[in-house]
Amino acid sequence: MYLHIKKAFDRVPHKRLLWKIKYIRGIKGNILNWMTDYLTDWKMRTMIRDTPLSWSTITSGVIKGSVLSTIIFQVYINNNIQEGLSSYINLVADDAKLLRVIKNIGDYMELQKNIDKTREWSQKWK
N or C end of the chain, less CB within 10 A? Predict the structure, then answer.
């Protein structure tokens, strides 16, 4: 079963990411301070025909194409996604593959349970 996380890099909430970095990954000190500074107070504004609009604070997303973006996204997505799954899950960036050999109806039902658990995880951490 192939899964794609739609707009995954755009949807990483900074506060939840920092929480995971600190409490799940156990990162602290200078690295945590650097990550907090990196993810705090992002601003952007658009322009319409050379007229700038007001600044907006950005509270989610990682910069696409940066060296850190894939690493940051993996830190965000990898916590406990495999916990409780009886199928193997392979994660590559914003794509996932659930793998299970289907020999009988029980295997199919177990795969469906794993799909449901993955969906529940995504709702919890969105």
Answer: C
Cβ atoms 94, 67 nearer than 8 A: no
Contacts of 16 (CB under 8 A, 6+ apart): 76, 125
Determine what percent of the chain is predicted with pLDDT higher than 70.
94
pLDDT band at 106 (very low <50, low <70, confident <90, very high): very high
Under DSSP, the state recorded for 44 is: E
Alpha-carbon span 63 to 99, nearest angstrom: 30
Q: How many CB atoms lie within 10 A of CB 27?
A: 16
Burial bucket for residue 45 (CB in 10 Å: 0-12, 13-18, 19+): exposed
Task: Return the sign of the alpha-carbon dihedral for residues 53, 55, 58, 64.
Answer: positive
Give residue limits of the domains in the chain: 2-125
CB 5 within 8 A of CB 89: no
Q: Assess whether pLDDT exceeds 80 at residue 78.
A: no
